[in-house]
Design goal:
Length: 94
Amino acid sequence: MDLSFEVGDKEFHDVLFQFDKVWGGLNIYVDGESIIKTVRFASLSLVKTWEFEVGETEKHKVKIEKHRALMFAGFRPQPVHAFVDGKHVASGIA
């Protein structure tokens, strides 16, 4: 599952969220550079959140949330939502 969106008004940055539901691999890229890379085999939380800042002179707070079902999460849709400065900017389903 890939979710991409642009951040910035004058200083633009491309954010790409990649998640492999089968293997649990997750990557987050900003302008093609990996800033978060992880693998999850099991989780107790129903919502996983990643937060980071993007920009040099024009800074923005980015938050990405991945929701999962309580049971059989690997076989169910997992909504992903992206927010920039608290504003919803993108959604997808893993």
